[in-house]
Each structure stands twice: as structure tokens, then as C-alpha cells.
Amino acid sequence: xxxxxxHRPWLMFGILLMLPFIxxxxxxxxxKMNKFQGFAESGDFDKxxxxxxxAGKTDEGRNRILYFFNKGWTQHMxxxxxxxxxxxxxxxxYIASYEQxxxxxxxxxxxxxxxxxxxxxxxxxxxxxxxxxxxxxxxNDKEGxxxxxxxxxxxxxxxxxxxxxxxxxxxDDAFAQTLSGLIYDASGDFNNAFIAxxxxxxxYEEVFQPHFGISAPLQLKEDLLRTAYLSGMxxxxxxxxxxxxxxxxxxxxxxxxxxxxxxxxxPVKDQWSINFTKVxxxxxFVTFANQEMGLSFPIFIGDMSSDERSGFSQLEFFRIAxxxxxxRNKVLNNATITIGNESFPLQLAxxxxxxxxxxxxxxxxxxxxxxxxxxxxxxxxxxxIRHQNQDVGTAVGILNALTETxxxxxxxxxxxxxxxxxxxxxxxxxxxKFSASxxxxxxxxxxxxxxTKGQTIFFNxxxxxxxxxxxx
Length: 472
Fold this sequence. Notes:
Blueprint: H1 8-26, H2 29-32, H3 34-42, H4 45-56, H5 64-77, H6 81-96, H7 102-110, H8 122-138, H9 142-162, H10 174-186, H11 190-212, H12 218-230, H13 234-244, E1 255-263, E2 268-282, E3 285-290, E4 295-300, H14 306-314, E5 317-326, E6 334-339, E7 342-345, E8 347-351, H15 352-362, H16 364-388, H17 390-403, E9 417-425, E10 428-438, E11 441-451, E12 456-463
Parallel strand pairs: 1-12
Antiparallel strand pairs: 1-9, 2-3, 2-5, 3-4, 6-7, 6-10, 8-9, 10-11
Helix pairs in contact: 1-17, 3-4, 4-5, 5-6, 6-8, 8-9, 9-10, 10-11, 11-12, 12-13, 14-16, 16-17
């Protein structure tokens, strides 16, 4: 049978025609969203919103969830709580209905994972509910906020069921448990507040401290003791006084402020490459390894045609692209709230940067296995086509190399970390001063808050100072 022929000029024309699209795909998502990110980092949220509209709609299919994330965040920063929750609700619905698209999975196997709709990271998933809770609290809807805090815990339980046989250090969220406690506390439900605070302490001790280096905040311990006392749990008060080496100090504030400090920007994704060389070929398997990282992957070629097996047997070296996080380090490291002559330090409760790095590391081997399988599918297709037509096979080989790229998408407007504290207020007008410092820089803001007797005001403040990705 005579093999079909494709003339080289047309072949090269086809490759050149595809190059602009391939080169665009080589840019990281952070680079593609540079205009939006620049406005966001400078605090110009109106222009950030406009830039998002022009950038987001072109990729609304694949990047739809990221559009909802960023749109919800910009509306939140503009003080448009209801509009913000509208977009975050759409994000939540998207997450709940996310299903595998097998046609896209197959196509991604022959190109790269960026052509599939983005599936959020677990920390991104739960931060949707944090911002929804903050919006509800600003709208004075504590029940709505409490629902969102509970959703975080539920999402993490579902995630644990999914990864119960695999390494997953982000198994629970102490900050979410703390947030639930704070909302119960503000509603006067001290018994449920105590339970949530107790759960939070447990998660800090068993998950956050050993894996992410975040200990239970002093404010959490004080709130746990206070709510145990107000719930009439004298045995629990004594138990935790001994555990914390603290003494419960009953307070009688006219009103209170719970202040959240969202500091800087979380990491962005880039890519790195792992090089593999063939170390053996035996019994229907070709084994590739990276000696430096101690990685070895056998690829079964026994069921392939002789041409496909030949393609693998001749292969001595290949490269696989893998996503990595790049930190945008904090400029500000410490902050306090001052009211009158009293100062209250803001205490670290959530480290999005650390969690992000750890979650990606936990699934590294799963990502590598998928990348290896994708590579195998590419090479099998290339070998088969090369047998039919050498020129087309060459073209496929070139395209395989050019399209080997990692998925660098992520929610890039999340903060680096979140700290909080509780501040006493008086009924009526209050002047609250925020001050932060670090690396020779400082930030100061003054807030005027009016409180009624018995009220707890929730306020989240964002510091936008951050070093460029990977700069230090």
C-alpha cells in the first residue's frame, strides 16, 4: 500500500501557522494576567475590574472559575458585598458541578492540561467561603456567614474521602474552625463557639503546627477559655487552663471588634522541567529515570505495534513540564491594632502561601504519573504517524515538544496569610488605628467605627504590599 505524502513546504507552513498559539500557551497564567494583576496590586480595583473583563471573557470556558474568583474578589474590595457573593456563588456552583470531560481529557493527553477547564486547588476552594462569610458579616447576616464557615469544613471532609489513601497534609482547616467559633461567639451561642474553638485548637496542634508551622493563636486560647466559662463548663476551663498554662480572665466589654488582616499576595504558579533518561528496556517495559531526584518510571510497550515499540526503544531522553509555586514574599511582617492607650498584636491564623506549597508537593508523584502517561500517549501517536508518513511524524514530534507545558493557572489575588485579633470597643464612636511594619516599610490606617452595646463588629483589611514573584 502506498503511503500518503505531504510536501515539506506545506508541512512547515502548518507548523509556523500554529507557532503563535503555541508560544502564547508557553506564557504562565501570571504573565497573561499581568495587566489585571498590576491594577490589583496597586489598589485600583475599578481598573482591575475593567482589565478582568477584557482578559477573562476570551477564556471564559477554560478559565471560567478563575474569572468568578477574581470578579468576586474585586467586587469585595470595592465594597460591593452582594455583587461579590453573586460571583462567589457562581464559583461555588461550578466547583460543586465540576465533572470530568472525557473528550477534553483525551485531547489534553495529546497536548497539555491547560486546554481543560481549571480545577481549583483545595485552598482556593475554601477561600471562596471565607470571602462569602466576610461579605455576609458586612451585610450583618451572621447566619449566612456561619453557613459559609460550615461549608469549608464540609469541603475538607469530602476532600479527605477523596484522598484517604493518598498523602494529604491539608486535611482540615484550623482557621475555618476558628471563624465558625467567632461567628457563634458573636451570636451569643457560647456553647457552640467553645466546641468550634476546641476543634480549632486540635487542628492547629495536629495539622497546622506540624505541617505548616502555625501554632494556635493566643487569641484563640483566650476565647476558648472564656466561652467554656460562659457555658458553665468549669471542668473544661480547668483542663484548658492547665493545658495552656493560662488563667481565664473574665471580660465585660461594651462592644467588640474582630479584626482580620489579609497580608500581601499568595504564590503564583510557574513551571519547571524534569529530565528523564532511559535506563533499561526489558520484558515489554522501557524504564526512564531521574537519578538526581530518585525517580523511576517504567512504561509498558508490550501491547504496542512494532513501529510504536521501535519509537520508544529508540528514545533515550525526554523532558516533562511540571507546575511549581513561586512565592511573592511579604513586605510587612508585623501589625497591631491600637485603640486609646491599648495595643493588640495581630496573630497569624492562616498561611495560604505555606499551604499552597505543601498541597502541590503532596500530589507531586500523582502529577508526575499523569505527565508520564501523557508523554507515553504522545510518543505512541508520534510513532504510529511516523510509520505512515515520515514528514507528518516529524511534525507531530515537533508539536509534542512545543506543547509540553504545565498548568500554571491559579487564583492570584489571595493573600499570603491572614492574622486576627479581638479588640474591645465602647458604645458609640471609636477610633481604631492599624499599623504594620517590615523590611524598612510601614503602613498605617485609621478607622472610625460606631458600635452599639453588645455588638461584635467584623472587619477584614488587606495590605497590598508584596515583593514580585521570585524576587526574594
